[in-house]
Amino acid sequence: MVRGTIPRQPAKTGRHEGARRTPKPAAPPRTFTPKALAPKPAPKMTPRAAKPVAKYDPLAPERVREILKRLDERYPKATCALHHRSAWELLVATILSAQCTDVRVNLVTPVLFQKYPNVQHFAALKPEELEPDIRSTGFFRNKSKSVVGAARKLVSDFGGEVPNDMEKLLSLPGVARKTANVVLGTWFHHATGVVVDTHVTRVSHRLELTRQENAEKIEQDLMRIVPRERWIDFSHQVIWHGRQLCMARSPKCAECPLESLCHAADKTWSTVEIHKAAKP
């Protein structure tokens, strides 16, 4: 072997001397951000409880006041539609109006009172004698007994005068609270209760002012929510409303001033939610 320089052997590591090395990428320069300027983590949001929706209360004082206000605006001079010139004539007309229209009664009573001018004339009759004169009002046999019986009671116990007292009026044949309230409120201007007839019953149910079916219980409910000084006018206004707009069939809801306050199930037109239980 020729003496000289011995070539270097490859390194055991596998790296040959003089081989090119790939440089590592340089780390990005560090930047210094003061704590005051560093972005703060977003605060954790706790979901808020939804505000409870106010429960609908058909008997809320503000709703009742609004109903009364709108009735005043629509029927400012509402009064009893039965024609009469005395408490006795009003009493007779009210008895005859049961299950009969006021229009029909007003056609019958002028002839009736011309034929029998006062309570004494009625007291002298037999019920059968009165029947032909009131036949067109319906249920004429029962009505004849009631009118003649009331006349006899007035002559024998009250000097022929209609008393202005609820208890005494209720002692007369054929007189219940509805009739007594009509006479006391319309003639004597005594607010002793609310007149409850078919119109008042229907409208009160549609407006959800009562759920009762019995007339006396309906009256008690209305007396609790309507101020006493409004009982007489309220009765007349609701009766007029029931005749003109809030009829039993096909009520004129589009013309009704109470429409936005009414959720009746049988409305013919509505801008508010319908309540299935609000029905006549």
CATH level-1 class of the domain at 61-77 and 194-261:
Mainly Alpha
Number of helices: 11
Main sheet makeup: none
Strand count: 0
In CATH, the homologous superfamily of the domain at 61-77 and 194-261 goes by the name Helix-hairpin-Helix base-excision DNA repair enzymes (C-terminal)
Question: Which structural class best describes the helix and strand composition?
Answer: mainly alpha
Query: Per DSSP, what share of the residues sits in E-state strands of 2 or more residues?
Result: under 5%
CATH architecture annotation name of the domain at 61-77 and 194-261: Orthogonal Bundle
Helix content: 40-55%
Mean pLDDT: 89
List unreliable stretches of 5+ residues: none
Q: What's the helix-strand series?
A: HHHHHHHHHHH
Reported by name, the CATH topology of the domain at 61-77 and 194-261 is Endonuclease Iii, domain 2
**Over the alpha carbons, how many angstroms does the gyration radius reach?**
43 Å
What distance separates the N and C termini?
130 Å
Shape: elongated
